[in-house]
Amino acid sequence: MSQPQRIINEIILHCTATLATQPVTIDQIKRWHCQDNGWLDIGYHYVISQDGTIHEGRHVSKQGAHCKGHNQNSIGICYIGGLDDFTGTPADTRTPMQKKALIGLVKELMQKHGLRPEHIHCHNEFSNRACPCFTIASFRRELSSI
Ligand SMILES: [Zn+2]
Questions:
Q1: CA 18 to ligand 1 center in whole angstroms
Q2: Measured distance CA(50)–CA(129) in Å, rounded
């Protein structure tokens, strides 16, 4: 009860940059993050599998590690995929279930933290990476269309 609440003013979207149909578990991502970066926990707060299952990663009350310069007051959400199965190049590989789950989760978090669509961002707005392999403009259209 005495723990101060972390102020959330951004939600940042990511992908794992793995092949579209490759199954990746949250434990695998956690291992990658911990072994490669020396972190103690997975960098994302939520991970969404191809079947639309939402997995909780690092607790939202704790600062994540997913977007340089933007971790302190953000929530990081990552969908599994982001690379075309055949070409291995960046692509919006979200399944319909992933899209639905992502939009539902973002809307829920927006409501909970009093955020507006302009508070939602893609990793690619803050870095040269393709991640999450769609644009923030297209995602905001998705948000308002459902
Ligand atoms: Zn990212």
A1: 12
A2: 21
Task: Calculate how far, in angstroms, residue 106's C-alpha sits from the geometric centre of ligand 1.
Answer: 16
pLDDT in tens, 63-111: 999 999 999 999 999 999 999 999 999 999 999 999 999 999 999 999 9
Read off the DSSP letter of residue 9: -
Ligand 1 centroid from CA 1, angstroms: 32
Counting every residue written for the chain, the total comes to 146
In sequence order, the 6+-apart residues with CB closer than 8 A to the CB of 31 are none
How far, in Å, from the CA of 3 to the mean position of ligand 1? 29
The dotted CATH code for 10-145 is: 3.40.80.10
